[in-house]
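stage 2 :: seqdesign
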């Protein structure tokens, strides 16, 4: 009952006021609807669809016993996980209806991630952590720019996907970014790792499962804020770590 009331409150908060068709003109027996009324209806429909998505994710949480949505004390969503069949561009586009979101996880996205849907992620004012896992297409330059509109992002995780070199360089300019994970990307090699030299504020970096070698370590060792580097399942060796001059305990190679 409490969750139902929460959804009703969200629906009221998200939906715009009752649509008023103003300034309608008569032409024969047809009524012409003002563009503003059409826009208002579209916003209301978008808001209602977003609340319906929350209900479905709540039901999934109960069914699978894994949290797909978390709420704050006021009943506002702070975490949303879009798994498998829910990880669609339509659902991603609804997330800007929840300005209290702190974490978003998009798991096993099917098909390309579109710039338009990522633009909605970029509008979330409280977002601190974004995780995109299992995405078959590359994170392109346009997608990266859409994500980077969010200046509050502190942690970015790209797991089992691919990121282009220009896209990676865009993330270097995120002012609050302190952790970046690029895991299980077979195309991520020493040349791409060299681009990380511009990430001067990064404190944690995970390159596990990528194609990096000892050759990337001298550049990474110069990152001024780096406190932890994880390179499990790579070709990086303990000898290379020592030669690059990393402080003891900074680099994690084995599980």
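stage 2 :: out
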């Amino acid at each position: 009952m409490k969750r139902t009331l929460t959804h009703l409150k969200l629906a009221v908060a998200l939906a715009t006021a009752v649509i008023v068709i103003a300034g309608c003109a008569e032409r024969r027996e047809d009524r012409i609807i003002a563009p503003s009324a059409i826009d208002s209806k579209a916003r209301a429909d978008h808001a209602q669809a977003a609340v319906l998505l929350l209900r479905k994710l709540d039901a999934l949480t109960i069914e699978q016993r894994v949290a797909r949505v978390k709420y704050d004390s006021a009943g506002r969503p702070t975490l949303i996980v879009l798994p498998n069949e829910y990880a669609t561009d339509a659902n991603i586009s609804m997330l800007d209806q929840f300005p209290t979101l702190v974490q978003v996880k998009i798991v096993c996205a099917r098909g390309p991630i579109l710039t338009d849907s990522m633009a909605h992620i970029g509008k979330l004012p409280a977002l601190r952590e974004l995780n995109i896992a299992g995405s078959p297409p590359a994170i392109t330059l346009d997608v990266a720019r859409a994500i980077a509109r969010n200046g509050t992002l502190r942690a970015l995780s790209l797991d089992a996907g691919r990121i282009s070199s220009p896209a990676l360089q865009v993330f270097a300019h995120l002012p609050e970014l302190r952790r970046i994970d690029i895991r299980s990307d077979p195309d991520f090699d020493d040349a791409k790792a060299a681009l990380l030299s511009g990430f001067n504020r990064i404190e944690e970096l995970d390159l596990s499962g990528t194609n990096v070698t000892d050759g990337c370590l001298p550049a990474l060792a110069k990152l001024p804020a780096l406190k932890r580097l994880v390179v499990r399942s790579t070709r990086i060796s303990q000898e290379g770590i020592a030669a690059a001059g990393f402080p003891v305990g900074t680099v994690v190679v084995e599980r």
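stage 3 :: structure notes
- The two ends are 45 Å apart (CA to CA).
- The chain has a mean pLDDT of 84.
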